[in-house]
Automatic annotation (TrEMBL):
The encoding gene: TPT1
Pfam families: TCTP
Lineage of origin: Eukaryota, Metazoa, Chordata, Craniata, Vertebrata
GO molecular function annotations of the record: calcium ion binding
PANTHER family according to UniProt: TRANSLATIONALLY CONTROLLED TUMOR PROTEIN-RELATED, TRANSLATIONALLY-CONTROLLED TUMOR PROTEIN
Annotated TCTP domain residues: 1-170
Organism listed in the record: Astatotilapia calliptera (Eastern happy)
SUPFAM superfamilies from the UniProt entry: Mss4-like (SSF51316)
Protein name: Translationally-controlled tumor protein homolog
A Gene Ontology term for the protein's cellular component: cytoplasm
Length: 228
């Protein structure tokens, strides 16, 4: 799996779980998503077989959230710009990316500076069409992704500056899951460092999984569950 991170903030912006294509001039990655509604939360009673009825009810609390899956999966944060504000932001951002390229890919600097100017003009000319999203940390110096919709008015897609991204390749990992999209809905693809519960009722166990791409190994601990 590949995670695309903001070169400046380090925030993850999207992954190869989505349909990704590069623009003809190599300035953007275009990432296609979809609008979804998800239920968040899990049943704590699976962990404590002897929990009281009141505790079980509290443990079953859940909520629904709707939005574009790219945004939800990677915890992108919406921000806003008018034309003047975006011009101020993009000038500083282009300078920051240029400085990074001069350090890492000096041969890329000239074409980047030449190709990004007409793209910025297009963005400014259609500024009202876009929604703007930063990474989770909301670093004001980091990348701002642009959200727009196809001509059908239904299909969302996002634009990210290719040269402002770094690639992180994650190793393969295993997990027990209670449904095909359970781990997808809980953001397990992109939040491997956090804790998740996944139940496998036919084996009468609940496995607590702690995934970490910072450490050399994944860890797991299993408890028996009394199913009645």
């Amino acid at each position: 799996m590949i995670i695309y991170r903001d070169l400046i903030s380090g925030d993850e912006m999207f992954s190869d779980a989505f349909k990704v294509k590069e623009s003809e001039n190599g300035i953007f990655f275009e990432v296609e998503g979809k609008t979804v509604t998800r239920t968040e939360g899990f049943d704590d009673s699976l962990i404590a077989a002897n929990a009281s009825a009141e505790e079980a009810t509290e443990g079953n609390e859940s909520s629904t959230i709707s939005g574009v899956d790219i945004v939800l999966n990677h915890k992108l944060q919406e921000t806003g710009f008018d034309k003047k504000q975006y011009m101020t932001y993009i000038k500083d951002y282009v300078k920051a990316v240029k400085a990074k390229l001069q350090e890492t890919k000096p041969d890329r600097v000239e074409s980047f500076m030449a190709d990004i100017q007409p793209e910025v003009k297009k963005i400014l000319g259609n500024i009202k069409n876009y929604q703007f999203f930063t990474g989770e940390s909301m670093n004001p110096e980091g990348m701002v992704g642009l959200l727009d919709y196809r001509e059908d008015g239904i299909t969302p897609f996002m634009l990210f500056f290719k040269d402002g991204l770094e690639i992180e390749k994650l190793t393969t990992w295993n997990y027990i899951c209670c449904s095909p999209d359970c781990c997808f809905q809980n953001g397990l693809q992109s939040r491997l460092e956090e804790h998740y519960l996944a139940s496998c009722l036919n084996r009468n166990i609940v496995q607590f999984l702690k995934y970490s791409h910072y450490g050399p190994q994944n860890r797991s601990q299993t408890w028996g569950v009394n199913q009645t």
